[in-house]
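F.,

This is the one I mentioned.
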């Protein structure tokens, strides 16, 4: 019985050792497989993802460099009419805000005093002329008597002096008549320019005096001026443009649906404002429809120069690197390369760029560049039209 018990114990120990050995082999096999798979994963490179982008085409065209400024509308001429004599207003011939023609009668003043003075001076002039005629006749008789030696030289000289004195007096009287006529003419106040009248300050019966308040003001608004300023760095370009001919200027009101008005540059100031570093300019507009009014604010645009055969891309296609700006150019293999460029102008959502290697027709990344690196592969979305503005 003892031998049987020992055989069973030995058998159980052998089974236990076989089980442990099998477990060890299984673990070793699992670890080997894990190391093999890990080594295979390290050895196999990962495939870089394809980046979805929106592309655009580099275009070449002439670009007008537009300058924009805020302008103020002002009347080309403004005249304040004041009386030149003391009188009462008899008639007001116009209404406030009325368009008037040059030479049109505006006010009539009471001129009875001036008419009386004119009549007096004219009568005095007539008397002086009659006296002169009589003196001249007497001088002729005195000359005849002197030739016959009936009178002396002194008598003849006296007659001549009388004629000369009366001629001088006649000239004085004639000048006084003319001065009185001018004064009488001040009773009729006419428009010195064509334009639009402002508020009327007097009414029939009002007493007006020289140096007092203006009767009315007249502003010429057709044509009309717009004043604005530009940085002094644009002065040379503006002068060159004016030397070649008229510089077109457009003005636009801050109103929806209003078309821009076209005018021309007429004035460049003779000095730069040292405080602001700007130059004052003035443009003229026909304003036949009276859309511009003195005191209005408008947006002024002019294009004094043109960039010939410039390369343009959408402004969002220009990327900013640590050193300079660049474009992501899409190659035939759909991989991108960085092309350094400099930006000359940004206008209307387009950038004018220049740099070695920039040619018309090359495709660049317009959107989605934030996920790119040089050499990245891209898939283009060509739904965006080339930049041909």
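My design for it:
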């Amino acid at each position: 019985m003892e031998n049987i018990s020992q055989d069973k114990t030995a058998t159980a120990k052998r089974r236990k050792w076989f089980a442990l050995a099998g477990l060890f082999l299984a673990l070793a096999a699992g670890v080997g497989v894990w190391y093999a798979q890990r080594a295979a994963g390290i050895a196999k490179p990962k495939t870089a993802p394809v980046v979805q982008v929106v592309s655009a085409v580099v275009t070449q065209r002439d670009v007008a460099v537009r300058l924009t400024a805020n302008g103020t509308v002002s009347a080309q001429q403004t005249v304040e009419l004041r009386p030149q004599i003391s009188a009462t207003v008899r008639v007001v011939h116009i209404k406030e805000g009325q368009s008037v023609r040059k030479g049109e009668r505006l006010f009539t003043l009471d001129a009875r005093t001036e008419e009386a003075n004119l009549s007096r001076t004219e009568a005095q002039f007539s008397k002086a002329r009659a006296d002169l005629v009589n003196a001249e006749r007497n001088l002729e008789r005195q000359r005849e008597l002197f030739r016959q030696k009936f009178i002396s030289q002194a008598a003849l000289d006296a007659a001549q002096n009388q004629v000369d004195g009366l001629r001088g007096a006649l000239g004085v009287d004639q000048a006084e008549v003319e001065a009185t006529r001018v004064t009488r003419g001040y009773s009729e106040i006419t428009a010195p320019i064509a334009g639009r009248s402002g508020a009327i300050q007097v009414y029939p019966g009002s007493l007006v005096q020289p140096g007092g308040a203006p009767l009315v003001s007249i502003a010429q608004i057709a044509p009309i001026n717009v004043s604005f300023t530009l940085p002094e760095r644009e002065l040379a370009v503006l002068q060159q443009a004016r030397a070649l001919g008229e510089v077109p200027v457009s003005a636009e009101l801050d109103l929806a649906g209003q078309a821009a008005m076209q005018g021309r540059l007429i004035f460049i100031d003779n000095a730069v404002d040292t405080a602001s570093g700007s130059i004052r300019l003035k443009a003229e507009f026909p304003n036949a429809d009276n859309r511009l009014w003195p005191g209005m604010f408008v947006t002024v645009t002019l294009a004094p120069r043109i960039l010939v055969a410039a390369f343009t891309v959408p402004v969002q296609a220009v990327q900013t690197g640590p050193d300079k700006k660049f474009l992501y150019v899409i190659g035939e293999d759909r991989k991108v390369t960085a092309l350094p460029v400099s930006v000359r102008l940004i206008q209307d959502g387009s950038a004018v760029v220049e740099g070695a290697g920039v040619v018309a027709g090359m495709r660049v990344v317009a959107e989605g560049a934030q996920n790119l690196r040089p050499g990245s592969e891209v898939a283009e979305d060509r739904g965006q039209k080339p930049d041909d503005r």
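Residues 2-43 form the longest helix (42 residues).

Talk soon.
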